[in-house]
Amino acid sequence: MSLNNTPSGERVHIGIFGKRNAGKSSIINALTGQSLAIVSDVLGTTTDPVQKAMELLPLGPVVMIDTPGLDDEGALGELRIRKAYQMLNKSDIALLIVDGSVGFTDEDLRILKRIFDKGIPYVIVFNKSDLAEDREAVEMALKQRLEEAGTGTADLRIMWVSAADMTNIYELKDLIATLAPTDDPNHRIVADLLEPDDLVVLVVPIDKAAPKGRLILPQQQTIRDILEADAAAVVVKENGYREIFKSLDKKPKLVITDSQVFKRVAAETPQDVPYTSFSVLFARYKGELWTLVDGAHALDRLKDGDTVLISEGCTHHRTCEDIGTVKIPKWIREYTGKKLDFAFTSGTEFPDDFDKYTMIVHCGGCTLNEREMKYRIKCAQDAGVPITNYGTAIAHMNGILDKSLEVFGKKEN
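The structure corresponding to this sequence follows.
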């Protein structure tokens, strides 16, 4: 796969945070060598988080996230700050940009504490080094503030740069690369379950919600992962699955289906052939499979008047047969027989108050990186709200969840 075509969810996300006019947008432009962000002396030029997929050498494919100033003011400013803090949830690396000519402030300390709390690898980038009169004094003041705040300075990473004259920009790029999460060769969508020459059948409906001319992202990624395992993939629509299966000379190692036709595929698959869904695979790959499996059982405990949150990681054109807003609510109502309310979020929007929700049903999260998916799961757990995902919930409602999990072996401790 070309680096330029690497899906957003597979890229390292680098969040740029700081006060207004600290030089966040200038740093992004200097790092990338492009005019990706608007630069202005006017406070609050960046009003909403801006994400840009690109290549950042020596790191490779990344998503750069430019955020509004975290010292913004007024009611609108509070909304901007909230959106900026949401970007921490998907940041694999955080750059805290500080105006070196001003020094480390109370606002910078508040931002840094949030970065610490989320355990995000970070660099404190003092910009405008060309305007700083006493760097040593600025750093000493920073360390003193951190000691007083009880955060310590053991892992403190500081870099002085100037976006104006490119001082230490290349050194900053090298430092960022050392903070990137390392790839786990065993962290795969499905390849770790396969041997060379295995056969995998993928059942892929082509519905109105599918992008014209191509498969949806999780299907593309799964096929690529199968091929990288030196296995073979047979792709078929649901209405041709039965006949294709009969024509195979070799028993498939696994059948993977779109969740929307889970029940049909299960009925047409021999008992000695394991099957699962793309969504269940992504529950393991992007989140915590067994947490989402446990969450599916909350469907059996729903009562009249409960509210179920349906949350999707992306935004897309809705159709009359949209799975998130139409099919999932319909199937849950039919399964439970209860009078339920449904709420919906999509894209970067994810609630920070879960009091009104009885459970959460999330999409597979193919467009989210692992950090954000696990963050959402953890938020739900901390609030005591069960969370599951589409495929896991659908398998449970059709009585085939245990069978769809057999390929993964015993439940992890």
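The first strand starts at residue 12 and ends at 18.
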